[in-house]
């Protein structure tokens, strides 16, 4: 039996295949290599397709939320704007999903901007959802510092010490982050607020402060 032959010859597959396929052995190996190549290509196409589907879904979620927000249906969270009107919104803060946000009016370095926020009991904003990114982009124009910086090893860390969720790398502008001058360790929003850019922390920008509310 073939199984006995395999066992007695300690897995000498080359001899077995030679006996089985004779002069066609090279064709057999060539066919296997071709099949393996095809499988590898198909797997790469599937992985790329899944990535594109994820990116498309992410973009659609962003656009749908923007439409709802612009229509006004998400601007008032169960009257919370009214609840905080005396303490914050009357002073220029905007309420959204448990936090209030303030845009500065003076351009400063990233560190100076953070100090500006901290003096007001807040910190530079941490963006943790598609909805929050849309809110920020809709509410604050011009280039503004947010609470994201890079370590020396180029790991992106928020001001609360948490790492940037890979899902939100979709918000980087095309070609960013590029560390163009080898000193771009801080992150700003671009003019329309929709995308992010890494920039030198010494540059002067407006900023977005965020204070999480406790009930």
TrEMBL record:
C-type lectin domain ranges (all copies): 96-210
Pfam family, one: Lectin_C
Record Gene3D superfamilies: Mannose-Binding Protein A, subunit A
Domain of life: Eukaryota
Name this protein carries in UniProt: C-type lectin domain-containing protein
InterPro entries assigned to the protein according to its UniProt record, in alphabetical order: C-type_lectin-like, C-type_lectin-like/link_sf, C-type_lectin/snaclec_domain, CTDL_fold
């Amino acid at each position: 039996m073939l199984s006995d032959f395999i066992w007695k010859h300690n897995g000498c597959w080359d001899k077995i295949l030679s006996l089985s396929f004779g002069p066609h052995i090279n064709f057999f190996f060539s066919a296997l290599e071709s099949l393996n190549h095809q499988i590898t290509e198909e797997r790469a196409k599937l992985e790329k397709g899944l990535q594109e589907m994820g990116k498309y879904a992410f973009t659609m979620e962003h656009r749908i939320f923007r439409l709802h927000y612009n229509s006004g249906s998400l601007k008032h969270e169960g009257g919370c704007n009214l609840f905080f009107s005396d303490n914050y919104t009357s002073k220029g803060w905007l309420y959204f999903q448990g936090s209030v946000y303030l845009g500065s009016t003076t351009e400063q370095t990233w560190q100076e901007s953070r100090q500006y926020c901290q003096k007001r009991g807040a910190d530079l904003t941490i963006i943790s959802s598609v909805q929050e990114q849309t809110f920020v982009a809709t509410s604050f124009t011009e280039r503004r510092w947010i609470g994201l910086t890079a370590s020396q090893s180029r790991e992106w860390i928020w001001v609360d010490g948490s790492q940037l969720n890979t899902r939100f790398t979709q918000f980087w502008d095309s070609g960013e982050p590029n560390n163009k001058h080898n000193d771009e360790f801080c992150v700003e929003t671009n003019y329309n607020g929709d995308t992010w850019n890494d920039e030198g922390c010494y540059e002067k920008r407006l900023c977005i402060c965020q204070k999480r509310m406790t009930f």
